[in-house]
Each structure stands twice: as C-alpha cells, then as structure tokens.
Specification:
heterodimer; A: 457 residues; alpha+beta; PmbA/TldD fold; six-stranded antiparallel beta sheet; 12 helices; 37% strand; B: 490 residues; 2 domains; eight-stranded mixed beta sheet; five-stranded mixed beta barrel; 23 strands; 39% strand; globular
C-alpha cells in the first residue's frame, strides 16, 4: 500500500514498478521511460431529470518511450503483462531506429539532474469508493432542489494514479481523486447553470449547484435584446476559467514561444494585464486537481505566467528548457508535438464579493459562462465564443433582467488589461477534456469586453 | 496466438459477460471488445517530432435492467473480470433506475451474425517506417524552400479498429475498420502575425477509410513549396474586409459547415436534450420533421454509413444495427434525424438508422455522425465563381464556434481571395464569416457537381461525458452562398 493512501488504487506503485520492470533494460535501447496511468471513473449523466447514461470505467495505459541514440519513439498499450509491455518496447525501438537524428533530444531526465518529485496524494477514500447507488442518490438530491422536469448534468466520482519510471532512475508515483457535479436547469423559458469540482466529493455541494442553476434559470426568463458592442462585464468564475484555459492553450507553453505563436514571444517582461491580475500554473494550490510531477517525472514548479500584470512565463519541459536555456518547470505534456502545457492554471483571488463587483457597474453585462470558445488569433489571444445559461443586463449596480446570448470576439489579454475588480471567491473548474487538469478562477469585473453579435433565441 | 484462437477467446470472454449479465437480472445486454491500433507520425523541419504507436484492448458491457441503462468496462481480459464487469453493469443499471421514470424501449433490429471490413489496398501498418518518415521529411524539405517559413510540419496517421460485438438477442459481429490520413502545414510568422496554410486539409490533413494508397494519392512533396509560399504571402495580404457579400466556400470548409450546422443539430439525442448540459441541444425539434425549411432547394444532405472512403463508413454500428444511407435534408426540407434503437421510436421509425458509435472499448455508445454528405449539384468551382460579380472565396477551415443550439455560428478559414467579375483576385487573410444556420443554408444557390465532390474526414469530433472523440466523414463539394456577413470578429 502506498503511503498516504488506503484502499484500492486503479494502478499501484508496485503494479507500475512490475510493469516497467519488464522493459526498463530492454535490449538495444539506450534509454527507456514508462509512464503508467490508471483510472477508475464512475460517471452518471442525467437529462430530462432522469439518469440517461451511467458508466463505470476501469482503464490503464502504459506509454513506453524508447531512446535509440538521439532518436525516440513511444508505444502505448492497455495491457501491463510482460508480453504486451515488451511488444510495446520493441515497437517503440523499431520506430525510433527508423527516424532521422533529433539533435534537440536532451536525453531522458535523471533525478540527479531534475530532482525527485514529491507526490501530492490528493486521494480521498469516500470519493474513490463511491458506489453507483451513491451517485444516483446524489443526482436525486440535485433534482429535488432543481424542481423542474428538464435538468441535465453529470455527477462524477473517480480515482486516478500516475507513475513515471525510467532507466535513468526516475521512479515517482502519485494519485488523486476528483468529484465533479454540473447542473443545467431548463425551465422552458430559460436555462441556468451551476457546477462544483474538488478532489473530495464532500466538498462538492450538489444542492448549492442545483439551487444556483435554478435561480439563474428563474431570473433568465423573458430576455430582452441588448445591442452588440463593447460593455463593462462581470464574468463569473466558470466564464473566467474558460478564458484562462484558452489563454493557456494559446500561449503559456515554451514551444508556442519558440514557434512565435505565443503572446510571450513578443511581450515577455511587458505589462500585458492589469496589476490586479496574477495567473500561475500551480498544482500545489489547495483548489487544484493534479499531481506533483509531469509526464517525464520532472517535479512540477509553481510558475507565475502573468505576475501582477507582467508577462513572466512560459512553462517548460526538459527539451524546451534545454533548447531555450530557461528554467525547467516540470510541464511536459507527454506530447512532443504539442509541447509543455500549463494544466493547473490559477488566477489569484481579489477582495470583492460577486455582489460587490456587480454593485460597481453602472451599465454592463453579467456572464455566467461561455460555450464553444475557439482561438481566432494566437499572438493577440483573440477568442470567439458564445454566452449561455444566464446572461444578464446590469443597470445601476443591480441585475436588471436577462438578455439574449451574445457572441463575443475579444482578446483575453486586452480584457485582462481592463480588469477593474477581482472576486474573492475562487471556483474550481475540472477539465472536461480528460481527468488531468483544472482551472481555479475568481469572478472579474472587466472594463471593456466586446460582443460581436447576439442570438435570436 | 493464432487469429482463430484469438477470435474464439474474445467470443468466450464476451459470452461469459453476457451470461453473467442476464443471470444477474439484465433484461437486455450487449458486450463489445475492441482492439485499437494507431500510428501517428509528426515530422517538423526534417526531424521526427513525435512517433507514437498505440494498442488498446478491452471490453465493455451495456445492460438494461429495471428499464434503465448501465455500462461497465475494463482492460483486463479474463473470464473472472468479464463476470465482475457484467455484474457491475447490472448494479449500475439498477442504480440508474432509482432516478429514471421512462423505461428504455429498443426498436427491433435483426440479430446480425456477420463480419465486415474496410476495403484496403495497402495496409498502412505494413509499409516500412523509413518510407513513411522519408515521405514526410521530403515534404517538409519542400516547404522549407519558401523563404520566411517558421514551422514546416508533415503528419501521418493510421487507425485500425477490430471489434467483436455480441448481444443477448443473438447478434455476433466481427468488424475491422481502417482509416489512413496525412497532411502538411506551413506556418509563417512576422511582426506578431501568424499565418498558416495546409494541404490537403488543416488539422492533420486528409483522412479517409482505406490504406496507404490514400497517402500516395496526395503527393505531399509536390504541394509543399506552394503551400509554404501561400503562408508567407498571407503575412502581407490585406485583411478580409467586413460586409455582406456572396461567399464561395471550398469543399473543406463546406465539410466543417455541414458538420457543425447540419450534422450535430440532427443528432436525435441532442434534439431530445440528452446532451443539453455539455455540447448543447438543437434549434431543431421533432415537430420540424418534414416541415422545417433547412435550406434552399439545392441543399440535399444524407447520413450515409455506406459511402465508399468515408471514415464514418461501417458495416454495423456499436449496437449491432446495419449501417445505412438515409436522407436528412431533401430539397431543402428537414426529413430525417440520426437515430439509435432507443430514440428511433420517438420519431416514428420502426428501425434505428444505425448511428451509435463509441470511442474504444471503454465508452458507452452515443449517436455519432457516420458520413454526413452534401450531395453534389452541377458544374465546377469555376462555374460557381463565374456567376459572382463581387464576392469572396474562402478555403481550408481554421476556426469554428457555434452556439449551444447550433444556430449562431462563426467560422474562419486559412485563406481567401476576392472574386471580381467571376474571377479570383487579391489574396485576403483572416477571412471569417457568420450566420444563422437555416438562413445561411437558405442562401445557398449553388453546389458544385460530382467532379468537385470529395469525401472529407475529420478525426476529432468531440461529444459526450466522459468525452469521446470520433472520426467522422463528410462528402462535399464547393458551394455558393448569397448575402453572407463576412470579415466579422472585431
């Protein structure tokens, strides 16, 4: 049993050592690295106020990276027995040997070079052990509060373990649980939204998420038309989290800097946001969901990417830190094509309650969350997307009725440069592209935010 | 292990799961084992950026108990685990039934006992790696001949999915699907401006059902220098102006347009609100069937799992229903939805049209687009352009965003050209357009003919929770739209 964790892990440290042991000294390879991921995910989906899909997945993957001189390739398998592990190693070695030289390969990291990672073990037994019945009862709790016949969302309880082992001596293991609740209430005339995420299910307040969603929907009925244009806005935590997630995707990684696509390529060291804005990648933040090392086993560091408004990033992996001659931060994503990635973005809280932020707006728009955001221009961080599930007009410091949804077209950095107030409550939004990652964000009052068009419904 | 022994072992495993499910109280059960092999190569500036091979093998059991669904899946392949997973699926279904008021009813489907495979001329996994890498290196070297290129990248992907499906109704299906794709992309950077050109398509190129013959047809190196020079030229090209004008889209952008504004809104689970909290719903309702004017008379769109070359082509879907071709939009009118055995009855169908697919073995099947095809009209691209006095021609998708009802969209392309008096003029950068789905398709006055029609494929259609990524096909040709708002976004 791993220290700090009781109960049954999806993959234990011993499981990982045994599987990696089949290939770490694979004949013909100059170096071998094995990344093992295991997850046990229970996810209950409801829609139309009843459970529509309900799954329990047990998944495991081993990523075997083999070095042949300065060339590497990776083979992945879902089977941890000797035959499959060695077949993966052979496949990776064959692929590496067929590749041209890679002069930028820095070698596999070694502990004496990069340090030994400390596990975070954000493992919560009740979350890991939650049964399908408990999740169904949780959904019933949500629906009892939502009191409509058309509520939809998910209730997830899951456990995940990660290990990295290599022929250079990396041997690290971590595990975490996560619980996610989302609730969309549709009254027929309007929709509302509430969500909560944590690594402990006890901290996920199902009823509060449902109540919030119901209140938003009730307040959203009979929306009026507001003209597209540039407004002062209050973005609630889920909306801010989405912008930060795309800001990270568009430019926090060293590879994007190297390729000239990141705002950091031209603006590192400059003031790019209001002095009230500090954005870090910080897996150690108590609200973050994640592990203490990257996909090469390099210890993660807390990295300020925007520090009191000044651009200070990027995050790096060993390849890019070596090539660019900058600090190694432990953000290897496991994909050399994608490069290092900031997956636990945190914006520092301010001193205002949400009501206080709203009270400071004479004429503006309140946004609950965004939908289907995409990057239009990376260097300028220009994004587009829609508002949904609660968009309201603010007049004289008070919410003054719902408005139809807008399409926005806005540079995130320009929005952050006009921040006028930062909320003191932080919300955690768990990544929806997989179990690994989270964004922690406050609400913001932004001076200028551009809505390009509005919807007809 | 021989292929025959392997097949028997899989069937034994799945049969054990079915038996355990039904003996635990399941009223219906199906079990599906999947063996997925992939190879993904990315070459950047003549160096291999990544070379990843994967194999994933596991199984899932789907059951109905007390009128509700349960699903469980595992990568451990032994009879004891099969029984444990099946019992878990029943336990999950019983839990679902605690909060489930409308019992699931499945429309009938014959219990198919069959096998099906994608026609493949050259197995992409059997081609020597040196040859595949060598081709991509050559393509990046050709791109590198254009002065001013920051990144020259070439990619190649191959997928082979073998699946075994059995059900408590007696179905037993063995199916192998092979998809292969490749592409090149050149990125030019100057003064904070980043411009990219791709060939044959953006986002890892062109993907089709079949083998390495698809890659050989592309001739990537021959297009390298042209693509790179266009990326550099875009840096100094004028911005696409704003305004309302005639828009002609190339086949790749029409693919994205069909995908987002026809494919997703006609998925019946979205229409019914089953995806409301995540991807959203649809502006289309069940009463719109046979009534809604989705587009102009030249707009004819099918859901076709039988189309040759489509990455959404298969013999049977992941609940054992035969792949079919059905009309979604006929002469501009909505006439069909993509359905499943659970949802078909709700639109008066006595049979599912076979669109349930799952990513891998671990996921619950969802309604997923097979190949959603815009049927060809008449004439060539030149004919479409010839009837435009003043407009814009946009090519190759770059960005996309659409609201939760699939109605308000904004899409961007890599490149555009002015159209003046029926001919292409100046190159324009950052072209974008916006619209409202039925209004936009209503403004379509021409779709190019069979000579321009091509099966396209996208590898990354996301849907569901836990998130699933699916390969989806779209047969399209260039099309023309009048009175479109372009150059939007600022």
């Amino acid at each position: 049993m791993t220290e700090g964790i009781s109960g049954d892990l999806p993959v234990s440290h011993d499981d990982a050592r045994k599987a990696a042991g089949y290939v770490l000294d694979y004949s013909g390879a100059d170096g071998v690295e094995v990344v093992l991921t295991g997850s046990r995910t229970g996810l209950t989906r409801y829609a139309g106020s009843q459970i529509i899909q309900n799954t329990v997945q047990n998944n495991v993957k081993a990523y075997v990276r083999v070095a042949a001189g300065d060339r590497t390739a990776t083979a992945t398998t879902s089977q941890l027995d000797q035959e499959h592990m060695q077949r993966a190693a052979a496949s990776a070695l064959e692929a590496a040997s067929a590749s041209p030289p890679d002069p930028d390969f820095p070698g596999l990291p070694a502990p004496e070079q990069v340090g030994r990672a400390q596990a975070l073990f954000r493992w919560d037994e009740p979350t890991a052990e939650a049964s399908p019945q408990q999740r169904a009862e949780g959904v019933k709790q949500i629906l009892d509060v939502a009191k409509v016949d058309n509520a939809a969302g998910v209730y997830e309880t899951s456990g995940h373990s990660f290990a990295v082992l290599s022929s250079t001596g990396i041997d690290c293991f971590d595990a975490y649980t996560r619980s996610v609740c989302t609730c969309l209430v549709d009254t027929g005339a309007a929709t509302g939204w509430g969500e909560a995420s944590s690594h402990r299910k006890a901290e996920v307040d199902l009823e509060a998420a449902a109540r919030r969603s119901l209140d938003k929907a009730a307040a959203g009925e009979e929306p009026s038309d507001a003209d597209p244009g540039t407004y002062q806005v209050i973005l609630e935590s889920p909306a801010v989290a989405t912008l930060l997630e795309y800001l990270s995707y568009a430019g926090f990684g060293a590879k994007q800097v190297l390729e000239g696509e990141s705002f950091l390529a031209e603006r590192a060291g400059q003031n790019v946001a209001s002095p009230q804005v500090t954005v870090t990648d910080d897996v150690f933040h108590p609200r973050s969901i994640g592990i203490g090392f990257d996909f090469e086993g390099v210890p993660k560091k807390r990295v300020p990417v925007i520090d009191s408004g000044r651009a200070t990033g990027p995050v790096t992996d060993l390849r890019h830190a070596t090539k660019m001659g900058i600090d190694l931060t432990g953000h290897g994503s496991g994909s050399n094509e994608f490069g290092p990635y900031a997956s636990q973005v945190v914006m520092e809280a301010g001193d205002r309650s949400l009501d206080e932020l709203i009270s400071e707006v004479d004429d503006g728009i309140l946004v609950t969350r965004f939908h289907y955001v995409n990057v239009l221009e990376r260097p300028s961080t220009l994004l587009t997307g829609m508002t949904r599930d609660g968009t309201f007009r603010i007049k004289n410091g008070e919410v003054a009725g719902a408005v139809h949804n807008f399409r926005f077209a806005q540079s995130v950095l320009e929005a952050l440069a006009s921040v006028l107030g930062v909320g003191r409550e932080l919300g955690t939004v768990a990544a929806d592209y997989g179990p690994f990652g989270s964004t922690v964000a406050p609400a913001l009052r932004i001076g200028q935010f551009h809505f390009a068009s509005r919807t007809s419904h | 292990m021989s292929a025959r022994v392997y097949l028997l072992a899989m069937n034994d495993l799945l049969t054990a799961a079915l038996d355990a499910a039904t003996s635990s109280g399941a009223d219906f059960a199906d079990a599906r084992a999947v063996e997925l092999a992939t190879e993904s190569i990315s070459v950047r500036a003549a160096t291999v950026e990544s070379l990843d091979r994967s194999e994933s093998l596991g199984f899932g059991v789907r059951v109905l108990a007390n009128g509700a669904w349960g699903y469980a899946a595992s990568a451990r392949l032994d009879a004891k685990e099969a029984i444990r997973v099946a019992r878990t699926a029943v336990e999950v279904a019983r839990a679902s039934a605690l909060v489930h008021s409308t019992p699931v009813h499945l429309v009938d489907e014959p219990a198919h006992v069959a096998s099906w495979s994608t026609p493949v001329a050259t197995d992409p996994f059997a081609v020597a790696l040196e040859d595949k890498v060598g081709l991509l290196v050559m393509a990046t070297q050709e791109m590198g001949k254009a002065a001013g290129i920051r990144v020259a990248r070439a990619t190649m992907d191959a997928y082979r999915q073998r699946s075994w499906f059995v059900s408590s109704e007696g179905a037993a299906i063995d199916q192998t699907i092979v998809n292969t794709g490749a592409g090149i992309e050149a990125t030019a950077v100057a003064d904070g401006d980043v411009q990219q050109r791709s060939y044959p398509a953006s986002f890892r190129g062109h993907l089709e059902a079949g083998g390495y013959e698809i890659v050989e047809r592309m001739d990537l190196p021959a297009n390298g220098q042209r693509v790179a020079e266009e990326a550099v030229a875009l840096l100094s090209a004028p911005e696409c102006p704003s305004g309302t004008t005639t828009l002609v889209l190339d086949g790749h952008q029409v693919m994205l347009q069909v995908h987002e504004s026809v494919g997703h809104p006609t998925e019946l689970d979205r229409v019914l609100g089953m995806e409301a909290a995540f991807a959203g719903t649809s502006f289309v309702g069940i009463p719109d069937l046979g009534r809604l004017s989705y587009g102009s008379e030249v707009v004819n769109i099918t859901s076709d799992a039988t189309a040759p070359g489509g990455v959404g082509t298969y013999g049977y879907d992941d609940e054992g229903v035969e792949g079919q071709r059905v009309d979604l939009v006929r002469n501009g009118v909505l006439v069909g939805f993509q359905t499943s055995r659970e949802t078909a009855a709700l639109v008066g169908q006595d049979r599912s049209n076979g669109t349930m697919r799952a990513e891998g073995w671990e996921n619950f099947p969802l309604i997923r687009m097979p190949n959603i095809n815009l049927l060809p009209g008449e004439g060539s691209l030149e004919d479409l352009l010839a009837d435009v006095d003043d407009g814009v021609y946009m090519a190759t998708n770059k960005s996309w965003s659409i609201d939760d009802k699939r109605k308000n969209f904004q899409f961007g392309c890599e490149i555009a050209w002015e159209i003046k008096d029926g001919r292409l003029g100046r190159m324009l950068k950052n072209p974008r357009y916006t619209g409202i789905t039925p209004v936009f398709w209503g403004s379509c006055d021409a779709v190019a003919g069979p000579g321009e029609w091509k099966m396209q494929g996208t590898p990354n259609c996301g849907k569901g929770q836990p998130g699933q990524t699916m390969r989806v096909g779209h047969g399209t040709s260039p099309a023309r739209f009048r009175n479109v708002s372009i150059g939007v976004g600022q």
